[in-house]
Amino acid sequence: MSRLFSKWRSSHVGQTRLLSALTGLCILLAAQTSVADQRGPVTNLPLPRFVSLKAVEGNARRGPSLTHRIDWVFTRRAMPLEVTAEFGHWRRVRDREGAGGWMHYSLISGVRTVLIEQDMVPMRAKPDIDAPTTAQAELGVVARLGKCLPDWCRITAGRQRGWVSKTALWGVAPDELRK
Predict the structure, then answer these.
(1) pLDDT digits (tens, 9 = 90+) for 123-134
(2) HSE on the CB side for 144, CA within 13 Å?
(3) How far apart are CA 21 and CA 120, in angstroms?
(4) What is the pTM assigned to this prediction?
(5) Are 164 and 125 in contact (CB under 8 A)?
(6) For the purposes of burial, counting CB atoms within 10 Å of the CB of 77, is it exposed (0-12), middle (13-18) or buried (19 or more)?
(7) pLDDT beyond 70 at 159
(8) Sheet holding 80-87, edge to edge
């Protein structure tokens, strides 16, 4: 009798461990799905998402109202920003370095721009490492974002257009595709 109980107990422990592992996996997958599918409560747009500064100057405040103190002033028109939260007419944004705060929605635009993160990045005629270089983009240049493939994005900076590796850009998600 004790031998039968011992077999039942060991198989029961194994089933309990398996059930616990499966439950943990389901919770992990649900959490990842909810983070990936997170939407803004005001706009129903994805969070986080990239936008650009519409104004020549934009105040980033400590909280979502005009009564909150200004923590940061963005002074570069068309600079890419990442929206991380929404509250009424306010969007919490951050720049490449993590600086930011709450900004009124009228100061930002859905026009997509990127920041060049490497110096003298080759802009290529095609999305191919062996394609001819049509221009080079300097570190810190703000460019307009066009089509994006898994590893390449087409950008426009001034009168120059070309394909750039995604790894050289800030303002586009690594897995983002654009038509």
Answers:
(1) 999 999 999 999
(2) 11
(3) 49
(4) 0.78
(5) no
(6) middle
(7) yes
(8) 70-74, 58-61, 100-104, 90-94, 80-87, 49-53, 108-109
